[in-house]
Design brief:
Helices cover 32% and strands 29% of the residues. It is of the alpha+beta class. The chain has one domain: Gcn5-related N-acetyltransferase (GNAT) (Aminopeptidase). The radius of gyration is 15 Å and the shape is globular.
């Protein structure tokens, strides 16, 4: 699996050693609410998620590690879209620990995955979405250059096309 680095981050595969960091993210009620999942109450619930993350196909899901502390602070994924907004596109999704919001870290991570998707995978269009109430993600998506496309199933969808 490809690893990516920015000035402050390492995007890498998940390992079972990431359990405590993942649980910290998954148990945060605000993060869970905005990302659309139920908060995980106990470590065992988070471990079940982590096992799925570890088995995820190569080049589709990365742990976001803060270089300064070697702590996993979120994740980013690139996958086949659930909704068929653009044919032949891939969808980027992301989650970041609440204490790291507002620092531009997710923008760094997204930029690395966009370069990979457009240049190496030759994907023509990337879509991204957020739930209507998630203004934090909306700001990140717009700062990364995505353009609004459509509201569908309580989500706002955006797209970014590869520039030839």
């Amino acid at each position: 699996m490809k690893r990516f680095e920015s000035s402050r981050l390492i995007l890498r595969p998940w390992t079972t050693y990431d359990l405590e960091d993942l649980h910290e993210i998954m148990s945060n009620k605000e993060v869970a609410y905005l990302a659309g999942f139920s908060p995980r109450i106990n470590l065992n619930d988070s471990f079940e998620i982590l096992k799925k993350f570890v088995k995820e196909p190569p080049n589709s899901l990365w742990a976001i590690e803060l270089k300064e502390t070697n702590k996993v602070i979120g994740w980013i994924e690139l996958h086949k879209p659930i909704e068929d907004i653009y044919k032949g596109s891939k969808e980027i999704g992301f989650v970041l620990s609440e204490i790291f919001w507002g620092r531009g870290l997710m923008i760094e991570a997204i930029e690395k995955i966009l370069i990979h998707a457009f240049k190496e995978e030759q994907i023509d269009c990337i879509i991204c979405s957020h739930f209507e109430n998630n203004t934090q993600s909306k700001k990140v998506i717009e700062k990364c250059g995505f353009k609004y496309k459509i509201k569908y199933n309580n989500k706002n969808y955006y797209y970014l096309k590869r520039i030839e």
